[in-house]
Inverse folding.
């Protein structure tokens, strides 16, 4: 499979995605160094989401349109997972209503933050699929997601975005179960996005719902595995 066989997967967009990944990492690092607090999470999240949405339509990129829809639907459903982490197992802690606007147990920006990261990883998953095939792409992204997303978990505590109670094994500021969960989440992305290509947009909504449910299942499963040891 070649890149040009997937509408929207091209070198220009790949460069844009890589630049935004670097920008998000850099912003997270600076937020941690200077302890900018929840406002910095809101700024980068809403700014990046608006950029992706604008770029997708401005460049008429069907892949980014699909990924934005997919990530937004999955991000909204991730609120259930946050509720589980915050109010059920009491692992995740946000600054709360006094520091930021909340929806249920999560900051208002959280669904958009998940949309941004899912878009980034899904695009990379499609790029890897186009070059190495679906199986190897899924393995690569599993490893990449298990390392990439927990990087934000590490920065988040120092930035004042969120933190985890030390009631479970940790690696720096990230619980081991979160690292496993992110790997579970990431391994699903190449197959799901590949399946949505050349299908109606409404299929992307359905797959976003499936991914949102898988985020919860993967998190629950990862936590259950860790609790066995």
């Amino acid at each position: 499979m070649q890149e040009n066989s997937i509408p929207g997967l091209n070198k220009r967009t790949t460069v844009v995605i890589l630049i935004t990944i670097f920008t998000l990492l850099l912003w997270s690092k600076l937020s941690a160094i200077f302890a900018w607090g929840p406002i910095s999470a809101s700024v980068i999240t809403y700014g990046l989401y608006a950029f992706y949405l604008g770029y997708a339509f401005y460049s008429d990129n069907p892949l980014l349109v699909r990924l934005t829809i997919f990530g937004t639907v999955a991000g909204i459903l991730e609120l259930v997972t946050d509720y589980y982490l915050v109010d059920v197992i009491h692992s995740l802690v946000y600054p709360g209503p006094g520091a930021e606007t909340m929806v249920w147990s999560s900051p208002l920006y959280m669904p958009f933050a998940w949309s941004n990261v899912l878009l980034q990883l899904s695009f990379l998953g499609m790029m890897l699929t186009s070059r190495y095939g679906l199986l190897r792409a899924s393995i690569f992204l599993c490893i990449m997601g298990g390392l990439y997303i927990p990087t934000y978990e590490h920065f988040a505590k120092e930035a004042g975005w969120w933190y985890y109670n030390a009631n479970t094994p940790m690696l720096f500021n990230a619980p081991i179960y979160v690292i496993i969960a992110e790997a579970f989440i990431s391994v699903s992305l190449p197959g799901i996005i590949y399946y949505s290509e050349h299908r109606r947009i409404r299929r992307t909504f359905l797959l976003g719902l499936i991914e949102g449910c898988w985020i919860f299942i993967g998190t629950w499963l990862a936590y259950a595995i860790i609790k066995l040891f």
